[in-house]
């Protein structure tokens, strides 16, 4: 009886959380600009209801009386997620949770204004408040745990079981080979890129074709535009956004494929898990593994770009390259750039590692908010060899910190590592994959991911989810081997 009562309570809380997520989607896509202040109050109100349900003393009573040994694996996983949520949420005062929801909602709009103006000072006071509140939350979450610092306490919300120390070791192994590969590429002849102007309505039409080709179910989703592409929702309502640039169609193409990876993960989770803690992606790192393998190992492969080249020529005519092989090279060009979301596979993780180090300093109190622009620019020039030209291309480019998502950024690189492992296992199981991708058929690859990983949602812990899918312990080696082989072939060294 206790488990049934707990399960009913959790399902209602999960449903309310999905409603809150729909408010976020609306704010990013359709909300009138003048509604920002009211939306902040709406977020604070629903967050107070959610927080009250997550810390309801009845949950503690049920958790104390349920005999885990009497439950099946589904029930045990529900209990694990619920206990983790309860223990974390009971540490955070209700007024702090509500204030965080209000401030981060308002901060998002102010960040967008500051980014458009290239004016960090316009955002700095609000950002300082966001950091202050998140540090207070981290201090509460850290109490009674073995987390080594405040950042680790926040990181558990996105990748349970991970830590800054473990990630630093992994990223330390990534960096030398990535830098060496980039240096080789920069010393080679560069392939030409696309040219021309691309109608934005036609770009949106193509995004629909590509999302469908990767298995996105439009009966349970939709595509809209946003400043920063994202996926939202779970179960039977999973929405994605993209953005268009008339000078760069690859931006919309690959942001769409990326978000489709996220969305298909959510859509393919077992219906038995609907509106339960198991009915959504188990962690941000595992989630990112899906978006990155869709976008890169599949979407930027020589085989799939052969199909995409035909789609591009049919829709836009002349695009500045004259063969599928030239298009493949153009899609995978490695060039200096400021924007993480537009970065190539080789340099992408260097963007993430920069943010990982800086946000740990911010949360752990060794870097002041007002010193962030200088710290960012100095690190960026050291890592990428170019100076940041404007702050919208620097520390204001991402929405994550403005909305308080500290601890999130390293999951992007962790997801790349996981994607490398999944790709190695997938290729071993489907040797004929390239022949299918060349026809625009991703079905065997996406079905493999659905069968081996996506359907299970939050049934297992994050790392165990990858081990179950791949059959081996994850490491950075498969990703690095894949990158070195791919780009040596493109650049001829």
Structural account:
The protein has 493 residues and is an all-alpha fold. It folds into two domains: 144 residues, no CATH class; 328 residues, Neurolysin, domain 3. 63% of the residues lie in helices and 3% in strands. The chain is built from 20 helices and three strands. A three-stranded mixed β-sheet has the order 1-3-2, sandwiched between helices. Helix 2 packs antiparallel against helix 5, helix 8 packs parallel to helix 20 and helix 10 packs across helix 11. The model has no long low-confidence stretch (mean pLDDT 95).
Total number of helices:
20
Anisotropy-based shape: globular
Give the name of the CATH architecture of the largest domain.
Answer: Orthogonal Bundle
What is the residue-averaged pLDDT? 95
What is the H/E string?
HHHHHHHHHEEEHHHHHHHHHHH
- Uncertain runs: none
Instruction: Note the gap between the termini.
Output: 65 Å
Give me the CATH fold name of the largest domain: Neurolysin, domain 3
The assigned structural class equals: mainly alpha
Helical content band = 55-70%
Main beta-sheet strand count, sense and barrel state: 3 strands, mixed
Compute the gyration radius: what is it?
A: 22 Å
Strand content: under 5%
How many domains comprise the coordinates? 2
CATH C-level category of the largest domain:
Mainly Alpha
Q: In which order are the strands of the major sheet placed? A: 1-3-2
Number of strands: 3
Function: Broad specificity carboxypetidase that releases amino acids sequentially from the C-terminus, including neutral, aromatic, polar and basic residues.
EC number: 3.4.17.19
GO biological process, one term: proteolysis
Catalytic activity: Release of a C-terminal amino acid with broad specificity, except for -Pro
